[in-house]
Write a structure and sequence with these properties.
The chain is of the alpha+beta class. The protein contains 14 helices and 20 strands. Strands 11-12-14-13 form a four-stranded antiparallel beta sheet. A four-stranded antiparallel beta sheet has the order 15-16-18-17. Helix 13 crosses helix 14. The protein starts with a strand and ends in a 5-residue tail after the last strand.
Amino acid sequence: MTKIRKIYGKISTGHWTSAPLSFIKGCFSSCVALRAHAELLNYDFPPFAGRPDNLKSIMQLCLTRPSLQNQSSFRVEGTLTKANSSGGNKMKNDFEIHFWELSERVRLHINDEYLKNLFDKASDGGLYKLAKTLNISYPFIIALRRGVYSIPSKILVQLAIEANEDLYSIEDQIKEIGTRAGTKCKIKFPIKTTSQMASLVGHVFGDGYIGNKKRQFEYCNDNINLLNEVRENVKIIFGLDPMTERINRIGYPTIVGEVLVKFGAHFSPKIRSEKLVPEWVKFGSIEYKRAFIRSLFNDDGSVLFSENYKAKGVNYYQIRHKDLTETSQQLLQEIKEMLEDFDVFSGKPHTRNTYVSHGEEHTISYINITNTASIINFHNRIGLAEGNKFNRLKKIIKRDGGIVLKDKPKKVLVLGSGALKIGEAGESA
């Protein structure tokens, strides 16, 4: 009889369901695909923007198993979004990443006794047969069972199917994650959204870098406060110190980049990236939006101030390949809309100019904030790291908007309608 394994809870595409996922063991063992079906009642899954007309109450996800022939990677396909019919938030903010969603490069360290029992349950005493099923050698399966080596994520998923074991139960037993030759880190699964994660992803949109092949993460900036911010956030999430460090650059192992990419970060070459604001940020909490926007403006923003003339502004720039100008301006539009959650109103996205670099045409697009009340709100509600930009921002507010205190001001003076008015936290009365 075909064995069925059901997992209740969250579908790990960053969205949710209370329905069971049915894993058909026989299909997984003999075919190249393992399919998970999430059956959702209509009242549990209301219509959402972009939903196909023929999708009434069931969204099917396909977990593609690596075939013995092509060794293609384990993938999760499908995207679920949930929206209020009134047009409110388009996605429930419970995005999280499970171990089986990470790439096949990721290796996991499991509790030794639990892992041994898992192999025994899956093999039923026949490790030779299990090794063949998993498409690995007998010596390797012996070493994996004894915990000599970390276990690749795709093999662990296959092992769970053979042992008829709940993936969430296995996830609770993970001690460390890493890559084959990389540094390991302790991180709790599922990996959840935090303000620190939003900040790091924002920095990758800015002065950060994630390699296309190895996924190593590097951050380069001349502001020591921003280097310390990134260092602190990586420490909080991954428990890691920089692997490489220079005066204006810090670098981290592959596992950091692997996770950040899953949370929506770019990987190189950024000039050809079509990434937009991650949905968990765009439709997430105000803290996530603040952390993300702050990182963007700290890295690729600028503050215009002069003692000699009244022009002022807080600007944000994006450089993309000319073919991606429309996508770049879409990203800027999303940032503009998020700024409005802080009562910060910018102009619409503009194209500044196009230039040629290494034989390719690149386009600079930007948004700017010139309204005094919006600049005050940007200072008070989003802010910048201590440094030259922040000093210029304080000078604008001191000259044009009122007073600036060391702590967040409860009241500031704002010019409006030709008269001097008092507003709360930089808002016009």
